Amino acid sequence: MKIAFLAALLLGIGSAAGAQEAPPAREASAPLTLRKCLEIGLEQNYDVRIVRNEERVSDNNATAGNAGMLPTVDLSAGYTGTLDNDRTVTPRNGDATTETGVYDQTANVGLAVNWTLFDGLRIRTNYKRLKEMQQMGALKTRITIEDFMASLTAEYYNYIQQTLRLENFRYAVSLSRERLRITEARVQVGNFSRLDLLQARVDFNADSSKYMSQHELVTASRIRINELLANENLDERFSIPDSVIRVNATLDWNDLLAKTLSANASLLMAEHDSSLAELDLKTVLARNYPYVNLTTGYGYTYNRYGTGGNLSRGTLGLNAGVKVGFTIFDGNRRREQRNARIGVENAQLTQQRLEQSLRADLSNFWQAYRNNLEVILLEEENLIAAKENYEIAMERYLLGDLPGIEMREAQKSLLDAEERILTAQYNTKLCEISLQQISGNVMVYLE
């Protein structure tokens, strides 16, 4: 009775494990394809939204006014009052005159315009710098989007991988359950020993444990996808129509290399860094030239006097002036010029180092990509052989010609073959995604 109860309990555990993969409480209204995931993520992902806002800031900053190319116009008004005691002594006879409580007033209103006409091309350089920053803002957005798309695509296929692995573990549980059933029946008729039954039960329990643990990995992947999609409910369930990991086996090395050198966003960003370093040098060199400032204004001034022959005076008019200057010596110019030239050299070296690093990464991923394609072909052959081996082993096991340990080994070989081909497919897909990202072609997953 105790053995029967344990067997029923173990079978119940397997049934409960299978029940965990029952249809979820709330399915998505439509299958969530990779393209749909990417479209939703590009609209909702927090990192993408933040970097797009930052790009808007760089766009707003790239103006002639922010560079200092436009004049400044100030409208001002003021009032001043002074209360004095005056004592005046005439120079001829020394007579002194004293007046107390003399209250003088001045009121003015005016419009002033200041404009830097020339400052050694520094303003024009600043405008070019802002334009460079604008383009770098767009590139930063592109880099963030490409990183997001690569991460989401990889996680999408990881979810497929974990789901397929869960199916494999479920299949393993069903095989172990069938073996346990056969063993129990054989023990009752005396063909198998109690040791065979205990071993079959241990294997069934082990497979059931793996199956239940795999649920955690599937759930973790689902939560990660919801996080990337910025869903409020991180545990939201969805259905994915893809049931296999489809690998693009048509990538071409020469095409990838050419696109990497011409379209990689990080490499383009490094080119803009070099341009900024050259603009920094031009900014320092601008101090070798004179500057010309124009000032002009139009205003009205009213004065009211507390004493004297005139009670008040009002003036209305236009004023203008030009200021030309030249900084002869400031003690830092040569040092800053030398440092700016070093900055240009370092920016160029950084760009060259990045290009070399990208070439190395591309070569490594390409080698792994090609090797994994070969592994997939090899594992497909192994899977066919493992399935045939298992079918033969099951027939012998049913006839009583094969021990339980060898039957388990045939089952393990089949499951290992399925696991290896699944891993090879996923690894190949990761290499493919990395190659597309490095070459600046990751947007292909939106097609």
From TrEMBL:
> Which cellular compartments is it found in?
Cell outer membrane
Which domain of life, per UniProt?
A: Bacteria
Keywords (A to Z) from UniProt? Cell outer membrane, Membrane, Signal, Transmembrane, Transmembrane beta strand, Transport
Q: Which SUPFAM superfamilies match?
A: Outer membrane efflux proteins (OEP) (SSF56954)
The keyword Cytoplasm belongs to this UniProt entry's keyword annotation: no
> What InterPro entries does the record tag this protein with?
OMP_efflux, TolC-like
Q: Where is the signal peptide?
A: 1-19
Organism encoding this protein: Alistipes shahii WAL 8301
Q: What is this protein called?
A: Outer membrane protein
Similarity field: Belongs to the outer membrane factor (OMF) (TC 1.B.17) family.
- Kindly give the PANTHER family that the UniProt entry links to this protein: OUTER MEMBRANE PROTEIN TOLC
Answer whether the UniProt record assigns the keyword Transmembrane to this protein: yes
Q: Name one GO cellular component term.
A: efflux pump complex
In the record, what terms sit under GO molecular function?
A: efflux transmembrane transporter activity; porin activity
